[in-house]
Write a structure and sequence with these properties.
This protein is an alpha+beta fold. Helix 2 packs across helix 4.
Amino acid sequence: MPKKDIVNSIYAKERVITENSDLARELKNQSSFGTILDDNTVELSLIEALYLIEKGRLSVKEGKNKEVTKDSFIKKAIKREANFWTRYCVFRDMRNRGYVVKTALKFGADFRVYDRGVKPGEDHARWIVYPVRETEGHTWYEFAAKNRVAHSTKKRLLIGVVDDEGDVTYYEIKWTRP
């Protein structure tokens, strides 16, 4: 990929802020990454930033213009966000499959996922997604709570189970009346 297609950005602890450029805003407008701020820069989550780093679309710097490597970025993100790697594996898998993935904090979930070709704001998300590690244990109470959240927000519940290799298996759960 030519150097001109790489968006420059700054690491800012819980997020990454891009340069003020048309290319940076294109990430938001064309691909639904991040949020455009008042100064026309784009704020990316750490998960979105890592995905764009892996795709060769983003360069991240910190301090006095020091390049942040992919491995260094992952270490910083893991320190900042609980469950970062598990969440990232699900995010990456869904994006690679062509879905738009956004945060779902207001729904009490990790992500909301839009059908292929649907941009946030044009229609509602189809699923709320909870990433979990294959080796984690969960109670029926936690499972029921997640299902209630999905049902009350009129979304489908998707559990993304991540194995030790970072592969994801999805389970869709829904209410049914016998």
